[in-house]
């Protein structure tokens, strides 16, 4: 490899090793897409379209966040769409056909998702079959299970006001602003406090200048989003719930031993095992957590479409968009690198692309081809920056 | 020689004569067969605290097998390990670690995608309170671990390793070796086994790693240093044990021998001159001597 290429590669690797550097590629592609459609399609950046764009991306984002957890350990889960479909079908049957109260039905759907994920994880970890094969079997089997649950019609309506309200409610403008202010204030307080503690302990820390800059940029983004959403129907309740869930998952994957072990196993499973990490149990837990998260995605889907149909979940597009979103976001298919926020940003890239191409009247063919190119670019970037020691 | 004289004297005198304490880790009569192949044929070896014991030998002499047995990765067919005279039952790498024996294998067993701190604490992270949560979900005490990691790295005096937040994948080979060693000594260990620590390193990084090994000696670890590289062995080891055909062909004081003698021993199995029998007495306090009483003076293996 020639020297310049090598230097370029090592610079990319260093960028990805940085906390915020891993977001740069996906943020850049998001910016390019928004700038392009913002200029070419006047309707693209309107409050109404931004609202729909976010709602359209919600299911894919949730599934992408879910699959990120197993991508981190270097596994894959091809059954995410089917499992979320099973969760949604169970929810619909319980609520619509059997009259079970919505909270109970939601709980049952989440439990079913976790159980299916747990079962797959157990087979993968303790029987030793690659996750690709096990979850491919899961993809087929759980699609069948979904059909069985839905019965002969293949679709059920979802009219429960609470479940529908999950995706149709917008919070009042003032509450939206209050949430925005609280979010920024909380983030700023945590960051500044951490920095102060780091200084007190004599640890490496960021200067206050760049830190304040970052807080400022974050505040600007949050304000812009709030203002835009308030101009249409207010900040969707779903965004608050989803934001909370993803923030919790972020915390679990980055600030707990469990999360650290996910990264360790993805980085070097043998080293992790020799360090005394219970690799198999972590893998099972990771797959169970994916099942839980994607079942939640199924509930969101049921709420948004006001129905649960086989075609909305099964067949492939949802699965591929979710995995594509995670990878476009910057999570490595090779394991050990990524974050749930990358998955959210990746889902926004896919959602924006679909939304913008729809607006410009492009056909399904163009959408598929552009999505393919972006996915390929993301994976190529991942492969190039996959950290081999640049000094060797 | 005075050392040989000390060998028949009391234990304390022997310890004084060899420049260290009584043996910390004693290996007695370790035997290991792989099918019809006899990999180890009654190995006897000691390691003292504050001393670096070199273990050299040709390919196939049994160095790796012996390392794995001490590390708990393989089980010996016969023989004993004693730590300060107490017999150890090492049947797993966890048991070895619990006894204070840490091994740095050649592959280092690091996670390149994690930073230095995370690697140092891997599997033994400290967490904050929150006892109502299972341990795996309690918050990591990141800053406390980072402080400890900095101290550990400072203790090894690796000046080139400026940040414990650097991802290990971006470190040089010598720095990685330093991280692996820092992890080994962080875990309350008294015995550190190093497997070819300089094999993949350049000149400057080799010097760095050898400095770290010397700092282990200063911190009173018992170091067993396995290497092919006689130059490194002579520069850092206090005693050199030659393994040949699965048995110790001899043990030499480094300052009383030279590379020619060691090479000859590796090739032909000529016995060493060290008063190794002294340590033997200390280990076998119960009078149950397994294996030859004085390996240093054992006759050369038949070849």
**Count of alpha/pi helices of chain B:** 11
Task: Give the strand tally of chain A.
Answer: 2
How many beta-strand elements of chain B?
A: 10
Q: What form of chain A results from the Cα inertia axes?
A: globular
User: What are the segments of chain A in which pLDDT stays under 50 over at least 5 consecutive residues?
Assistant: 388-392
Largest sheet of chain B: 6 strands, mixed
Instruction: Output the helix-strand order of chain A.
Output: HHHHHHEHHHHHHHEHHHH
First-residue to last-residue Cα separation of chain B: 29 Å
Order of helices and strands of chain B: HHEEEHEEHEHHHEHEHEEHH
Oligomeric status = heterodimer
- In total, how many domains does the architecture of chain A comprise? 2
Structural class of chain B: alpha/beta
Main β sheet profile of chain A: 2 strands, antiparallel
Reconstruct the topology from this structure.
The complex is a heterodimer of chains A (392) and B (303).
Chain A: H1 3-17, H2 24-40, H3 47-72, H4 80-97, H5 102-127, H6 131-150, E1 155-157, H7 161-168, H8 173-200, H9 208-230, H10 237-255, H11 257-267, H12 269-274, H13 279-305, E2 307-309, H14 310-313, H15 317-329, H16 340-359, H17 364-384
Helix pairs in contact in A: 2-16, 3-10, 3-11, 3-13, 3-15, 3-16, 4-5, 4-6, 4-13, 5-6, 5-13, 7-13, 8-9, 10-11, 11-13, 15-16, 15-17, 16-17
Chain B: H1 2-8, H2 11-17, E1 25-34, E2 37-47, E3 51-57, H3 63-71, E4 78-83, E5 86-88, H4 93-98, E6 101-104, H5 116-120, H6 142-155, H7 173-186, E7 191-195, H8 203-218, E8 222-226, H9 230-236, E9 239-244, E10 247-253, H10 259-268, H11 277-283
Parallel strand pairs in B: 3-8, 3-9, 6-7, 7-8
Antiparallel strand pairs in B: 1-2, 1-4, 4-5, 9-10
Helix pairs in contact in B: 1-2, 7-8
